[in-house]
Write a structure and sequence with these properties.
Shape: globular
Distance between the termini: 33 Å
CATH topology: Rossmann fold
CATH class: Alpha Beta
Mean pLDDT: 92
Low-confidence stretches: 7-14
Largest sheet: 8 strands, mixed
CATH architecture: 3-Layer(aba) Sandwich
Helix content: 25-40%
Structural class: alpha/beta
Number of strands: 8
Number of helices: 8
Length: 245
Protein backbone atom coordinates (compact mmCIF):
# COMPACT_ATOMS: atom_id res chain seq x y z
CA UNK A 1 0.00 0.00 0.00
CA UNK A 2 1.04 3.62 -0.59
CA UNK A 3 -0.61 4.57 2.70
CA UNK A 4 -1.80 2.56 5.70
CA UNK A 5 -5.41 1.91 6.80
CA UNK A 6 -7.09 4.45 9.05
CA UNK A 7 -6.52 4.43 12.80
CA UNK A 8 -7.68 6.18 15.93
CA UNK A 9 -5.94 9.39 14.84
CA UNK A 10 -8.44 9.63 11.98
CA UNK A 11 -11.19 10.47 14.47
CA UNK A 12 -9.32 12.87 16.74
CA UNK A 13 -9.32 16.62 16.42
CA UNK A 14 -11.01 19.92 17.12
CA UNK A 15 -14.37 21.14 15.85
CA UNK A 16 -14.05 24.56 14.25
CA UNK A 17 -16.42 27.43 14.84
CA UNK A 18 -18.09 29.26 12.00
CA UNK A 19 -21.32 29.59 10.05
CA UNK A 20 -21.46 27.79 6.73
CA UNK A 21 -22.88 29.56 3.68
CA UNK A 22 -23.62 26.69 1.29
CA UNK A 23 -26.71 24.57 0.85
CA UNK A 24 -27.76 20.95 0.55
CA UNK A 25 -28.76 19.60 -2.85
CA UNK A 26 -29.06 16.31 -4.69
CA UNK A 27 -26.64 15.82 -7.58
CA UNK A 28 -26.80 12.68 -9.67
CA UNK A 29 -29.08 11.22 -7.01
CA UNK A 30 -26.46 11.83 -4.30
CA UNK A 31 -26.97 14.06 -1.26
CA UNK A 32 -24.41 16.85 -1.38
CA UNK A 33 -23.34 20.04 0.32
CA UNK A 34 -22.86 22.71 -2.34
CA UNK A 35 -20.95 26.01 -2.15
CA UNK A 36 -21.04 28.46 -5.06
CA UNK A 37 -18.35 30.97 -6.01
CA UNK A 38 -19.33 34.63 -6.04
CA UNK A 39 -19.96 34.64 -9.80
CA UNK A 40 -22.10 31.45 -9.54
CA UNK A 41 -20.15 29.86 -12.40
CA UNK A 42 -19.84 26.08 -12.29
CA UNK A 43 -17.42 25.29 -15.14
CA UNK A 44 -14.48 24.79 -12.75
CA UNK A 45 -15.59 22.55 -9.90
CA UNK A 46 -14.21 20.59 -6.96
CA UNK A 47 -15.47 17.47 -5.22
CA UNK A 48 -14.38 17.10 -1.60
CA UNK A 49 -14.01 13.49 -0.48
CA UNK A 50 -14.21 13.70 3.29
CA UNK A 51 -12.67 11.90 6.22
CA UNK A 52 -14.82 9.57 8.30
CA UNK A 53 -16.64 12.50 9.91
CA UNK A 54 -18.67 12.73 6.71
CA UNK A 55 -20.18 15.49 4.64
CA UNK A 56 -22.13 17.01 7.53
CA UNK A 57 -19.03 17.84 9.60
CA UNK A 58 -18.88 21.61 10.08
CA UNK A 59 -15.10 21.77 9.60
CA UNK A 60 -15.19 20.38 6.08
CA UNK A 61 -18.21 22.48 5.11
CA UNK A 62 -16.29 25.59 6.15
CA UNK A 63 -13.41 24.42 3.96
CA UNK A 64 -15.82 23.95 1.04
CA UNK A 65 -16.97 27.54 1.52
CA UNK A 66 -13.32 28.65 1.40
CA UNK A 67 -12.75 26.89 -1.91
CA UNK A 68 -15.88 28.57 -3.25
CA UNK A 69 -14.58 31.93 -2.08
CA UNK A 70 -11.50 31.22 -4.20
CA UNK A 71 -13.58 30.77 -7.33
CA UNK A 72 -14.46 27.06 -7.36
CA UNK A 73 -17.93 25.54 -7.43
CA UNK A 74 -17.47 23.04 -4.59
CA UNK A 75 -19.47 19.93 -3.76
CA UNK A 76 -19.23 17.47 -0.85
CA UNK A 77 -21.07 14.23 -1.62
CA UNK A 78 -22.39 12.05 1.18
CA UNK A 79 -20.10 9.05 0.86
CA UNK A 80 -21.29 7.44 4.09
CA UNK A 81 -25.11 7.39 4.02
CA UNK A 82 -25.38 7.47 7.81
CA UNK A 83 -22.23 5.44 8.46
CA UNK A 84 -19.97 8.37 9.29
CA UNK A 85 -18.41 8.65 12.75
CA UNK A 86 -20.52 10.32 15.41
CA UNK A 87 -18.11 11.99 17.83
CA UNK A 88 -20.88 12.24 20.41
CA UNK A 89 -21.05 8.47 20.75
CA UNK A 90 -18.55 5.90 22.11
CA UNK A 91 -16.19 4.99 19.29
CA UNK A 92 -14.13 1.89 18.55
CA UNK A 93 -12.05 2.39 15.40
CA UNK A 94 -11.52 -1.31 14.69
CA UNK A 95 -15.21 -2.08 15.12
CA UNK A 96 -16.08 0.84 12.87
CA UNK A 97 -13.71 -0.38 10.14
CA UNK A 98 -15.07 -3.91 10.36
CA UNK A 99 -18.78 -3.12 10.59
CA UNK A 100 -19.65 0.35 9.29
CA UNK A 101 -16.97 1.96 7.17
CA UNK A 102 -17.93 2.12 3.46
CA UNK A 103 -15.78 0.24 0.97
CA UNK A 104 -14.94 0.68 -2.70
CA UNK A 105 -18.09 -1.15 -3.95
CA UNK A 106 -20.20 1.46 -2.15
CA UNK A 107 -18.12 4.60 -2.60
CA UNK A 108 -17.19 4.14 -6.27
CA UNK A 109 -20.81 4.28 -7.52
CA UNK A 110 -21.50 7.37 -5.39
CA UNK A 111 -18.42 9.04 -6.85
CA UNK A 112 -19.32 8.06 -10.40
CA UNK A 113 -22.88 9.37 -9.98
CA UNK A 114 -21.63 12.66 -8.54
CA UNK A 115 -19.15 13.19 -11.37
CA UNK A 116 -21.80 12.37 -13.98
CA UNK A 117 -24.31 14.68 -12.31
CA UNK A 118 -21.86 17.58 -12.17
CA UNK A 119 -20.90 17.26 -15.82
CA UNK A 120 -24.48 16.81 -17.06
CA UNK A 121 -26.53 18.92 -14.65
CA UNK A 122 -24.06 21.75 -13.98
CA UNK A 123 -22.07 21.84 -17.23
CA UNK A 124 -18.80 21.31 -15.37
CA UNK A 125 -15.87 21.39 -17.80
CA UNK A 126 -12.92 20.89 -15.46
CA UNK A 127 -13.24 18.85 -12.28
CA UNK A 128 -10.81 18.57 -9.39
CA UNK A 129 -10.83 16.29 -6.38
CA UNK A 130 -9.91 17.15 -2.78
CA UNK A 131 -9.40 14.19 -0.46
CA UNK A 132 -8.90 14.24 3.29
CA UNK A 133 -7.80 11.02 5.05
CA UNK A 134 -10.38 8.40 3.95
CA UNK A 135 -11.25 10.54 0.94
CA UNK A 136 -7.69 10.66 -0.37
CA UNK A 137 -8.04 7.13 -1.73
CA UNK A 138 -10.92 8.14 -3.97
CA UNK A 139 -9.20 11.21 -5.38
CA UNK A 140 -6.35 8.97 -6.50
CA UNK A 141 -8.67 6.18 -7.74
CA UNK A 142 -10.59 8.64 -9.92
CA UNK A 143 -7.65 10.68 -11.19
CA UNK A 144 -8.07 9.16 -14.62
CA UNK A 145 -9.76 9.67 -17.98
CA UNK A 146 -13.48 10.23 -17.50
CA UNK A 147 -13.04 10.94 -13.78
CA UNK A 148 -11.16 13.79 -12.14
CA UNK A 149 -8.86 16.11 -14.06
CA UNK A 150 -6.70 17.24 -11.12
CA UNK A 151 -6.21 15.95 -7.57
CA UNK A 152 -5.15 17.13 -4.13
CA UNK A 153 -5.04 15.12 -0.94
CA UNK A 154 -4.00 15.78 2.64
CA UNK A 155 -2.84 12.90 4.89
CA UNK A 156 -4.41 10.12 2.75
CA UNK A 157 -5.29 6.66 4.05
CA UNK A 158 -6.06 3.23 2.55
CA UNK A 159 -4.37 4.09 -0.76
CA UNK A 160 -3.09 1.09 -2.72
CA UNK A 161 0.12 1.51 -4.70
CA UNK A 162 -1.71 0.24 -7.80
CA UNK A 163 -4.10 3.17 -7.49
CA UNK A 164 -1.19 5.62 -7.51
CA UNK A 165 0.35 3.79 -10.47
CA UNK A 166 -2.93 4.17 -12.38
CA UNK A 167 -3.16 7.96 -12.07
CA UNK A 168 -3.01 10.13 -15.19
CA UNK A 169 -3.66 13.63 -13.81
CA UNK A 170 -1.66 16.09 -11.68
CA UNK A 171 -1.60 15.32 -7.94
CA UNK A 172 -0.61 17.45 -4.95
CA UNK A 173 -0.13 15.95 -1.48
CA UNK A 174 0.03 17.66 1.93
CA UNK A 175 1.62 15.40 4.53
CA UNK A 176 2.05 15.57 8.29
CA UNK A 177 5.36 15.00 10.06
CA UNK A 178 3.67 12.76 12.64
CA UNK A 179 1.43 10.32 10.82
CA UNK A 180 1.26 6.57 11.37
CA UNK A 181 -1.14 6.31 8.43
CA UNK A 182 1.13 8.09 5.93
CA UNK A 183 4.58 7.80 7.54
CA UNK A 184 7.96 8.54 5.98
CA UNK A 185 8.33 5.11 4.35
CA UNK A 186 4.91 5.42 2.71
CA UNK A 187 5.69 8.94 1.53
CA UNK A 188 8.89 7.65 -0.06
CA UNK A 189 7.06 4.73 -1.66
CA UNK A 190 4.49 7.14 -3.09
CA UNK A 191 7.20 9.49 -4.34
CA UNK A 192 9.01 6.64 -6.06
CA UNK A 193 5.83 5.80 -7.95
CA UNK A 194 5.04 9.42 -8.83
CA UNK A 195 8.52 9.92 -10.27
CA UNK A 196 7.79 7.23 -12.86
CA UNK A 197 4.54 8.83 -14.03
CA UNK A 198 4.20 11.56 -16.62
CA UNK A 199 1.73 13.65 -14.59
CA UNK A 200 2.99 16.61 -12.50
CA UNK A 201 3.11 16.02 -8.76
CA UNK A 202 3.91 17.85 -5.54
CA UNK A 203 4.39 16.67 -1.97
CA UNK A 204 4.71 19.13 0.92
CA UNK A 205 5.63 17.97 4.43
CA UNK A 206 4.46 20.05 7.41
CA UNK A 207 6.31 19.85 10.72
CA UNK A 208 4.72 20.02 14.18
CA UNK A 209 1.40 18.56 13.00
CA UNK A 210 -0.17 15.12 12.94
CA UNK A 211 -2.62 13.16 10.80
CA UNK A 212 -5.83 15.10 10.19
CA UNK A 213 -4.28 18.56 10.58
CA UNK A 214 -5.74 19.95 7.33
CA UNK A 215 -9.29 19.49 8.66
CA UNK A 216 -9.23 18.98 12.43
CA UNK A 217 -6.20 20.79 13.86
CA UNK A 218 -6.28 22.94 16.99
CA UNK A 219 -6.52 26.49 15.61
CA UNK A 220 -5.46 27.91 18.98
CA UNK A 221 -1.98 26.48 18.35
CA UNK A 222 -0.12 28.80 15.93
CA UNK A 223 1.94 26.12 14.17
CA UNK A 224 -1.08 23.91 13.58
CA UNK A 225 -3.13 26.85 12.33
CA UNK A 226 -0.30 27.90 10.01
CA UNK A 227 0.05 24.38 8.59
CA UNK A 228 -3.70 24.04 7.98
CA UNK A 229 -3.83 27.39 6.20
CA UNK A 230 -0.74 26.65 4.11
CA UNK A 231 -2.09 23.23 3.12
CA UNK A 232 -5.28 24.91 1.94
CA UNK A 233 -3.32 27.52 -0.02
CA UNK A 234 -1.25 24.70 -1.51
CA UNK A 235 -4.45 23.16 -2.86
CA UNK A 236 -5.77 26.45 -4.24
CA UNK A 237 -2.47 27.22 -5.99
CA UNK A 238 -2.43 23.71 -7.47
CA UNK A 239 -5.96 24.01 -8.85
CA UNK A 240 -5.29 27.54 -10.12
CA UNK A 241 -2.37 26.16 -12.12
CA UNK A 242 -3.74 22.85 -13.39
CA UNK A 243 -7.54 22.99 -13.23
CA UNK A 244 -8.75 26.34 -14.52
CA UNK A 245 -9.39 26.30 -18.25
Amino acid sequence: MASNPIGRCCAVGVKHEGTTTGEEKTIGGVKCYVAYPEDKKTENALIIFTDIMGYGFNNVRLIADQYAANGYFTVIPDLFNGNEVDLNQPFDIQKYIAEKMPRVPTVDPITTATIKGLREEYAVKRLGGVGYCFGGKYVIRFLKQGGLDVGYTAHPSFVDKEEVEGMVGPLSIAAAETDQIFPAEKRRETEDILQKLEAPYQMNLFSDVSHGFAVRCDLSKPREKFAKEQAFLQAVAWFDEYLKA
